[in-house]
């Protein structure tokens, strides 16, 4: 669990990123992709077992990160870090980059590192999607909910 705790933020940031936009984004770009909006991790499973409560206990602030997909294919990830107490989160470094979509595969490229990560996304409805990632040799299913 300690290894899992230490790696949750990189997993969420590099395994797959979703990024959100404000409601007043300029939609004139014609990008009406369902992913455009603000998203937050709302559940995580290894196999049939939800590990979300464990993640909240060990990484509460990282679980508050907001992933912002913009109409212009840019992204911002509003990160949160532990403050005075684990539940007292403070704003962290904002990650930026771009995103693209081919079929149901979304790819994210980070501005700072130039790294690209791709993942298949399955929408359950307009407000929820899941994506699978491999973390420490285990398959982890992440659920994101529109904020």
UniProtKB/TrEMBL annotation:
Entry keyword annotation includes Signal: yes
Signal sequence range: 1-21
Record key words, sorted: Signal
Stated name of the protein: Lipocalin-like domain-containing protein
